Amino acid sequence: MAQRPTMHDVAAKAGVSQAVVSLVLGGRYAGRASERTAERIREAADALGYRRNLQAKTLKTGVAEIIGLVGDEVATSPFSGQMIKGAQDLAWGEGNTLMTVDTGGDAALEAAAIETMLSHQVRGILYTAMYHRELEVPRAALETRAVTLNARDLTGSTPSVVPDEEKGGYDATRLLLEAGHTRIGMINIQPEEAIPAARDRRRGYQRALAEAGLPSSPELIIAGEGIHRSGDEGARALLALEEPVTAIFCGNDRTALGAYQALDELGLRIPEDISIVGFDDQDVLRDFFHPPLTTVQLPFLAMGEQAAALVLDPAAAAETHIIPCPVIHRGSVAPPKGR
Fold it and tell me: pTM (2 decimals)?
């Protein structure tokens, strides 16, 4: 087997010292080597097939150019995978690799994953949740730089990156109010509101109504479970009221899909008869909506980028970073019928 080329070989081919090669390939040559020299060194390294010995660098610095990401079901979730992409893109742009472990909620696997990452001397760990919730970061993860992604760290030990669920619910409702609706129902995604997404989206809905001088009647809020059936049953209940709604804010897109089906079976058109706004902007559901669903997007890509930037910044404070959820305007909102 041919011997792997060394930094000494690169230096000999480029006609420079090994120290200069180390500076250039390590990206630390500003003011010490010209761009022309740096390019000659890179060309020599490419021609020889030279690869930097990152293990040796880790032994020298005590830190690997790796960021760990530990999640419950993030990698297997079709819509939260954007968090991984955002973190990976930022990490790669800063010269780091992302090491990802999806634990499936298995506590033993999670502990083993964190231990493995610590043994690799990662630069930090992104402790990640599939859905926005409140949790305590495992003590082992705090042995390195840790950032909580899509969750709030109840201990206050780490920076947290979360979506602005309340402002998203507020903006969704404001959109319907601005279209002229005054009878707006909501189908939420969890009866007990044990997760921030359910609680805060409902709070945003109620705040928008209050600012418009409209009551938030209990009959207008359906608890729901965040599933297709909840949207179907919730829409039927809201339309069966003595004074039916003219618009519905659905707590997520799966709920909205169920509402679409109910309205179709009742012979009602979207948005001519009823306006609908969803939440999440799930890629896997997008093509099932006719007309296309106006929804609020969970900013997973931006959240992943922000979390990776924070894990690379040891000076960042342990505070919560709230990322805006933009409204995606499509074709499911119109003024109330007759206006």
Answer: 0.81
Q: Is the dihedral of CA 141, 144, 148, 154 positive or negative?
A: positive
CATH topology of domain 7-52: 434 Repressor (Amino-terminal Domain) (1.10.260)
* pLDDT per residue rounded down to tens, the chain (339 residues): 457 788 888 889 899 988 888 788 777 788 788 899 989 988 998 888 877 655 444 444 444 588 999 988 776 676 678 899 999 998 988 888 899 998 988 999 999 999 999 988 899 999 999 888 889 999 999 999 999 999 999 989 999 999 999 999 999 999 999 999 999 999 999 888 888 999 999 999 999 999 999 988 999 999 999 999 999 999 999 999 999 999 999 999 999 999 999 999 999 999 999 999 999 999 889 999 999 999 999 999 999 999 999 999 989 999 999 999 999 999 999 999 876
* CATH topology assigned to domain 165-298: Rossmann fold (3.40.50)
Separation of alpha carbons 236 and 257, rounded Å = 13
Helices (H), ranges, 64-134: 81-93, 107-119
The domain 61-163+300-323 having CATH identifier 3.20.20.100: the answer here is no
User: Do 130 and 102 meet the contact criterion of CB atoms below 8 Å apart?
Assistant: no
Separation of alpha carbons 111 and 178, rounded Å: 49
Residue 37 CB partners (closer than 8 Å, separation 6+) = 14, 16, 20, 24
Beta strand extents in the chain (DSSP E only): 66-71, 97-102, 124-135, 146-153, 160-163, 184-187, 221-222, 247-250, 275-280, 294-297, 320-323, 327-328
Q: Identify whether the C-beta of residue 126 lies closer than 8 Å to the C-beta of residue 67.
A: yes
